[in-house]
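U., I forgot to send this yesterday:
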Amino acid sequence: MRSIDVCLTPALLNLYDIEDSIVVVIDILRATSSIVYGIDNGATAIIPVAQVEDCLRYAGNGYLLAAERNGEVVEGYDFGNSPFSYTTEKVGGKTIVLTTTNGTKALQMARERAHQVVMGSFLNLAALCDWLRVQDKNVLLLCAGWKDKFNLEDTLFAGAVVAELRKDFTHIDDSSVAAEDLYECAKGDLRKYLHKSSHSHRLAQLNIEEDVKFCLQLNVCEAIPVLVGDALVALKA
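Result:
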């Protein structure tokens, strides 16, 4: 008997027993989308760190340093969390050290107790669901939200996963039902639905609409980034 739960914000993570669970960290706009894309494009590893200052410990050792706060690249770093910075030409064969406002924070919280931590995005939805379907573990879908608050885009993705996996799990909690219902409302045009979201408006002010559109693409990546030690690497089949 396996369960699938949705944690709508990291502020609620302490309510879940995850010691025997696979935790899927979700930060659609844009951290986990960029991580998936970067690993799919041949990045050797992506090292998530909690604070901007933590990146500096890796300076001068051949790493690419990526830091984002409030949707913008932190001055002095190679790039932030735009997926267009994670192309094969830029990250192939490289190791990136990354910190973001929400996604890397959620990841650091999950790693403390979870059996395993992987990254989810619309870009790798099918590959992720195919893999989760055959694992003998409970699943927690952890929405990174926005500064510990609920957000729409992460919840929509969680709902998409629930819709794909519902028949494979015996227990689904109420937040999973709500997430799936939201996804069913939005799936015909995700971008149109997300025009309602606060983070979408926040990013629009930064003139990065193309990033948003990119992150809502379905199934353009096969990679599933998994946390091994301190680094996210491609999950081996």
